[in-house]
From TrEMBL:
<dbReference type="Pfam" id="PF02823">
    <property type="entry name" value="ATP-synt_DE_N"/>
</dbReference>
<dbReference type="GO" id="GO:0005524">
    <property type="term" value="F:ATP binding"/>
</dbReference>
<dbReference type="GO" id="GO:0005886">
    <property type="term" value="C:plasma membrane"/>
</dbReference>
<dbReference type="InterPro" id="IPR001469">
    <property type="entry name" value="ATP_synth_F1_dsu/esu"/>
</dbReference>
<feature type="domain" description="ATP synthase F1 complex delta/epsilon subunit N-terminal">
    <location>
        <begin position="4"/>
        <end position="82"/>
    </location>
</feature>
<comment type="similarity">
    <text>Belongs to the ATPase epsilon chain family.</text>
</comment>
<dbReference type="GO" id="GO:0046933">
    <property type="term" value="F:proton-transporting ATP synthase activity, rotational mechanism"/>
</dbReference>
<comment type="function">
    <text>Produces ATP from ADP in the presence of a proton gradient across the membrane.</text>
</comment>
<keyword id="KW-0375">Hydrogen ion transport</keyword>
<feature type="coiled-coil region">
    <location>
        <begin position="90"/>
        <end position="117"/>
    </location>
</feature>
<keyword id="KW-0406">Ion transport</keyword>
<keyword id="KW-0066">ATP synthesis</keyword>
<feature type="domain" description="ATP synthase epsilon subunit C-terminal">
    <location>
        <begin position="87"/>
        <end position="130"/>
    </location>
</feature>
<comment type="subunit">
    <text>F-type ATPases have 2 components, CF(1) - the catalytic core - and CF(0) - the membrane proton channel. CF(1) has five subunits: alpha(3), beta(3), gamma(1), delta(1), epsilon(1). CF(0) has three main subunits: a, b and c.</text>
</comment>
<dbReference type="InterPro" id="IPR020547">
    <property type="entry name" value="ATP_synth_F1_esu_C"/>
</dbReference>
<dbReference type="InterPro" id="IPR020546">
    <property type="entry name" value="ATP_synth_F1_dsu/esu_N"/>
</dbReference>
<protein>
    <recommendedName>
        <fullName>ATP synthase epsilon chain</fullName>
    </recommendedName>
</protein>
Length: 133
């Protein structure tokens, strides 16, 4: 069976490179499911889990937005940050969640509110991925 070669890359370097049967991710325009022989795609992604399927197993990688590029059965995910469940520090994510929630309750300007919203989304995404491991 044909497979996809998947690379997840961040500014810190490559996080993962391996073969999978299917990649599911959340683009700004909605859910994207990529199987072998998919047409070329470039799409922006939201803070979410990238799901990688192989042999009836799914692994999830937390990404903080970024882009997916698909071409010739090569899937590249470029993200500002990406973590596998085993790399997620739960305490850190809980603290980040509490900090963001505190900031959202405090009265402040739009930019800081937006920043806190994104920080909360990143923390919730990490906690969700650890829970579903
Ligand atoms: P924090 O406020 O805890 O730094 P953050 O959401 O602002 O969280 P990011 O800016 O998304 O953090 O990521 C900065 C770096 O820290 C990235 O390399 C990311 O992979 C890593 N990182 C952030 N939170 C965690 C976590 N809970 N567990 C493991 N690595 C994390």
């Amino acid at each position: 069976m044909k497979t996809l070669t998947v690379s997840v890359v961040t500014p810190d370097g490559p996080i993962l490179e391996d073969s999978y049967e299917m990649v599911s991710c959340k683009a700004q325009s909605g859910e994207l499911g990529i199987l072998p022989n998919h047409i070329p795609v470039v799409a922006p992604l939201v803070i979410s889990a990238v799901r990688l399927k192989r042999n009836n197993e799914t692994i999830r990688v937390a990404i903080s937005g970024g882009f997916i590029e698909v071409s010739n059965n090569q899937v590249t995910i470029l993200a500002q940050s990406a973590e596998s469940p085993s790399d997620i520090d739960v305490q850190r994510a809980r603290k980040a969640k509490e900090r963001a929630e505190r900031r959202l309750k405090a009265k402040q300007d739009d930019i800081d509110f937006r920043r806190a919203e994104y920080a909360l989304k990143r923390a919730l995404n990490r906690l969700d991925i650890v829970e579903k491991r």
